[in-house]
Specification:
heterodimer, A: alpha/beta, 5-stranded mixed β-sheet, 4 helices, 7 strands, 47% helix, 19% strand, B: 360 residues, 5-stranded antiparallel β-sheet, binds adenosine-5'-diphosphate
Chain lengths: 118, 360
């Protein structure tokens, strides 16, 4: 799976694909881990294109977040379509993940909270 | 033109046709519908003697098909049959597929047969494929060649045995269009089909088969709008639903979801609802343990707007809603979140999961 990744000094932005189902979940997981954890940088996943997400996809988010937390880096999600947001709500994932309305607020939050740490 | 009297067909103890009595007039387009296994194919195969009936008789223009003295090959030539699986000669070109029969069996010259073949290929829209081999054609094109080949034998009656069942959904309509065109030319046709919209539009009469007989017959308006008998009613109700079968853990999720999407679109369900419906299919399948025989049913009732999704599976009793060994309950949460009710039952040694999907 080829994901669009934009790297910045303190974070990278990754664009989620249109669809993350059982068959695509492993690829998605690999791509995210490659992009995020190996670099030890904060990550924002831009979900604006994501229209289909199954439990297998949600599980990937969970796993990636766990690995990133273990490394002390942050994972942020942004720009969820209403139906995807609904799935996050139903599954209780909205309370586990910091979700932002758009990319800008997600980035601002990451940068600011990094500043606080300094 | 065709008179069927007291026709029966048994396979050992299995009575497939019990007592079929019906007349088909010249120029009629008959569609035969009904649940699978009710003998629709068998009836068709008895008609052209691919199967030997156990009892009764069939008359073609008053010639009794089953009498000893009857010239069966000659009668059979008056009927062409199109099968589900095309049955083209793989090593022959399209043109040769169409000419071999007329040359060998009807005594046509090669030139005559070729001229007619090209005419027929034009009718089915495949004139440019004259020199192609079957393997170079799509399923829909193969079936259109098969129809043309049948016509090349100059039959008076065309029998179609589920002509679109083996086709990719995208190719069904091109084949149905060809059959529809032939029906307009006054060809007598008997078509076994699962394509209900097609059956409704094309038929002069519909035979609903069940219980080894033609259980109910009538014009399409009657059968589809106002069926009279119990089982016909139940069947017509059921066909307002989508049935998908799975027999291996390597099921094709995308094909299943594509079919469900087509179904949802046909009923004008909002995108949001159809997206969630596809998701329910994936989640329900993820909960399954035994994939040897799964039957998925999606039905929609316009009357009250309910969207039901049933997963009916073989295997040991297993309630996925109460699976203590599951890794987590994310899938179940999605299912419960998007359904009004979710119920499990064990019936006839099968696991039945019934989801009433939220239609909003
Ligand atoms: N050659 C055969 N030997 C034994 N049983 C058969 C044979 N052909 C069909 N059957 C059985 O006859 C029944 C009716 O089959 P069929 O005519 O194909 O039904 P339909 O076309 O309505 O689905 C089925 O139960 C099938 O298993």
């Amino acid at each position: 799976m080829l994901l669009t990744i934009k790297k910045h000094s303190s974070y990278s932005i990754i664009e989620a694909p249109e669809r993350v189902d059982t068959l695509l979940a492993i690829d998605f997981e690999m791509a995210l881990l490659d992009a995020g954890t190996h670099e030890d940088s904060n990550m924002v996943i831009d979900c604006s294109k994501l229209v289909y997400l199954s439990s297998s996809g949600l599980r990937v988010f969970l796993l990636v977040q766990k690995k990133m937390l273990a490394k002390g880096v942050k994972l942020r999600l942004c720009h969820l379509r209403p139906s995807i947001q609904e799935l996050f709500d139903i599954s209780g994932f909205s309370t586990i993940f910091p979700i932002f309305a758009d990319l800008k607020t997600a980035i601002t939050e990451i940068v600011n909270s990094d500043d606080l740490l300094l | 033109m065709i008179r069927i009297r007291n026709l029966s067909k048994h396979y050992g103890d299995l009575v497939v046709l019990k007592d079929v009595n019906v007349d088909i007039r010249k120029g009629e387009v008959i569609t035969v519908i009904g649940p699978s296994g009710t003998g629709k194919s068998t009836l068709l195969r008895c008609l052209n003697l691919l199967e030997t009936p156990t009892g009764g008789n069939i008359f073609i223009d008053d010639i009794p098909l089953l009498d000893k003295g009857t010239n069966v090959p000659k009668i059979r030539q008056r009927m062409g049959m199109v099968f589900q699986s095309f049955n083209l000669y793989a090593h022959l070109t399209v043109l040769e597929n169409l000419t071999i029969g007329p040359v060998k069996l009807l005594g046509r010259t090669k030139a005559e047969a070729e001229a007619r073949a090209i005419e027929l290929l034009k009718i089915v829209g495949l004139a440019e494929k004259v020199y192609s081999l079957p393997e170079e054609l799509s399923g829909g094109q193969k079936q259109r060649v098969a129809i043309a080949r049948c016509m090349a034998m100059e039959p008076e009656i065309l029998l179609f045995d589920e002509p679109t069942s083996a086709l990719d959904p995208t190719m069904v309509s091109e084949v149905l269009a060809v059959i529809r065109r032939l029906s307009k030319e006054g060809m007598t046709m008997v078509i076994v089909t699962h394509e209900m919209d097609f059956a409704r539009n094309i038929s002069s009469r519909v035979f609903y088969m069940d219980e080894g007989i033609i259980y109910e017959e009538g014009p399409p308006e009657q059968i589809f709008e106002n069926p009279v008998r119990e089982k016909t009613k139940a069947f017509i109700h059921r066909i307002r639903s989508l049935d998908i079968r799975i027999s291996s853990p390597n099921y094709d999720l995308y094909a299943i979801q594509a079919e469900m999407l087509t179904f949802c679109d046909k009923h004008f369900l909002p995108h949001r609802v159809s997206d969630f419906t596809l998701l329910m299919a994936e989640e329900v399948l993820l909960l399954q343990k035994d994939f040897s025989d799964i039957h998925l049913k999606l039905s929609y009732s316009e009357k009250d707007g309910t969207l039901n999704f049933v997963c009916d599976s073989a295997g040991e009793a297993f309630n996925p809603l109460k699976d203590e060994l599951a890794e987590d309950d994310i899938g179940l949460k999605l299912i419960f979140g998007r359904c009004q009710t979710v119920d499990y039952a064990r019936e006839n040694n099968r696991n039945i999961l019934l989801l009433k999907i939220k239609n909003a």
